[in-house]
């Protein structure tokens, strides 16, 4: 294989006029996206985290954007590449495999929505994941339909494959629920503050309480190399659909409304008043769940074992001998001295320290490394 054309984005900084406050080149990198230039790196010389500044090219105005998501620690050597015109892949030289590449969303539907909501420039970080991470699974359905039961069965049968996204909620814990396992139980004022600081991928008010999926909840599962399961309501599913997190959306229906009420009563976790509220909301949720375009699959949970079998089938698990982690990801630490370029659908990371280029296939939010020869 010949030498891939290397493109080190740091080189771009040489093209900038003086007086832009840019520091030593390796600590920063600049990428053009439409009529804006994003300068990423050590932007104030003080923070230990990677900063972002945006240059509006038509006016020459610098903007400090609102930054959502967990910011990466700064690095001595950064390079970057724009993907699909809406997100920037950032590589941190000399970093460990679990910290070496990140995505900065600059114009995805999620960022655009946040920009409209906040009325300011917005960017959003997400950590890249090495390995063949499959798409997260979003499971929705009315209270008492059996979402938790089905998810528990899946996690029990495939413990090394699936990880549960532990949501935050302001509702009180039920008797057997553990903080940090079933939910992160939170005060409303704390959660509201965290919502405005951009901690959540999505959030919604459900049955009178706040519920939200933090960016970290999904990252923890991905970092463990597992496939993430989200148990969220229909509003949450809609937000995830609008975000750049690609997922499979499954809606669980009861065989009848009477059966739903029976299950909810038999579970015995709600007061009569709460139960009535959940049943009222169930009617609307069932209608929204069946609306076209939101859910990829609708399963009726009549007989539990039959429904569980159907769930496994649509997740491609029905034939699987229990060793999902067959192909262990090839873990590499990104060398300090590297270059990055895009050739067709492939992203090529060239390394002067290694004799060969490392070929990387880019899936969204996930890079799987394939060594080339
Ligand atoms: N949007 C959103 N909904 C959530 C989240 N976590 C849980 N939910 C939903 O909130 C609703 C109430 O959940 P919960 O109080 O545990 O009651 P249950 O559905 O009766 O088990 C359910 O529809 C959940 O799917 C979250 O992080 N975001
Ligand atoms: N297919 C089923 N048939 C009968 N009962 C079920 C079935 N699926 C779940 N259940 C029971 O219904 C109740 C509600 O299930 P749960 O998983 O807590 O629902 P959700 O998480 O959707 O609120 C639980 O007591 C559970 O044991």
From TrEMBL:
Its EC number is 2.7.4.8. It holds the Pfam family Guanylate_kin. SMART domains: GuKc. It catalyses: GMP + ATP = GDP + ADP. Keywords: ATP-binding, Kinase, Nucleotide-binding, Transferase. The keyword DNA repair does not apply. GO terms for cellular component: cytosol. Residues 134-316 form the Guanylate kinase-like domain. InterPro entries: Gal_Oxase/kelch_b-propeller, GK/Ca_channel_bsu, Guanylate_kin-like_dom, Guanylate_kinase, P-loop_NTPase. It comes from the Eukaryota. One of its GO terms (molecular function) is GMP kinase activity. Belongs to the guanylate kinase family. This is Guanylate kinase 1. It comes from Oldenlandia corymbosa var. corymbosa.
């Amino acid at each position: 294989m010949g030498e891939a054309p290397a493109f080190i984005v740091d080189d771009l900084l040489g093209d900038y006029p003086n007086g832009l406050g840019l520091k030593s080149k390796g600590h920063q990198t600049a990428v053009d996206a439409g009529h804006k230039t994003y300068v990423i790196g050590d932007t104030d010389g003080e923070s230990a985290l990677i900063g972002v500044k945006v240059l509006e090219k038509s006016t020459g105005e610098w903007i400090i954007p609102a930054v959502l998501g967990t910011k990466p620690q700064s690095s001595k050597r950064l390079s970057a590449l724009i993907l699909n015109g809406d997100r920037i892949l950032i590589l941190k030289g000399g970093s460990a495999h679990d910290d070496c590449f990140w995505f900065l969303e600059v114009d995805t539907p999620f960022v655009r929505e946040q920009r409209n909501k906040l009325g300011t420039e917005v960017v959003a970080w997400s950590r890249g994941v090495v390995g063949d991470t499959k798409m997260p699974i979003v499971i929705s359905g009315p209270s008492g339909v059996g979402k938790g039961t089905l998810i528990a069965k899946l996690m029990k049968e495939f413990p090394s494959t699936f990880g549960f996204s532990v949501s935050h909620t302001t509702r009180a814990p039920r008797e057997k629920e553990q903080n940090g396992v079933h939910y992160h139980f939170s005060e409303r004022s704390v959660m509201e503050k965290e919502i405005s600081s951009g901690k959540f991928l999505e959030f919604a008010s459900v049955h009178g309480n706040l519920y939200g999926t933090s960016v970290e909840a999904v990252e923890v599962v991905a970092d463990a190399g597992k496939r993430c399961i989200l148990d969220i309501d229909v509003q949450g599913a809609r937000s995830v659909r609008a975000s750049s997190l690609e997922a499979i959306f499954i809606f669980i229906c009861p065989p009848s409304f009477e059966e739903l009420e029976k299950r909810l009563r038999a579970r015995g976790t709600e007061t009569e008043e709460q139960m009535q509220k959940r049943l009222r909301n169930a009617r609307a949720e069932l209608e929204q769940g069946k609306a076209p375009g939101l859910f990829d699959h609708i399963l009726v949970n009549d007989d539990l074992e039959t429904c569980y079998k159907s769930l496994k089938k649509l997740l491609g698990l029905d034939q699987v001998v229990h060793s999902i982690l067959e192909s262990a990801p090839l873990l590499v630490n990104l060398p300090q001295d590297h270059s990055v370029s895009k050739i067709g659908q492939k992203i090529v990371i060239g390394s002067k320290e290694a004799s060969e280029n490392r070929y990387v296939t880019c899936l969204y939010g996930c890079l799987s490394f394939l060594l080339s020869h």
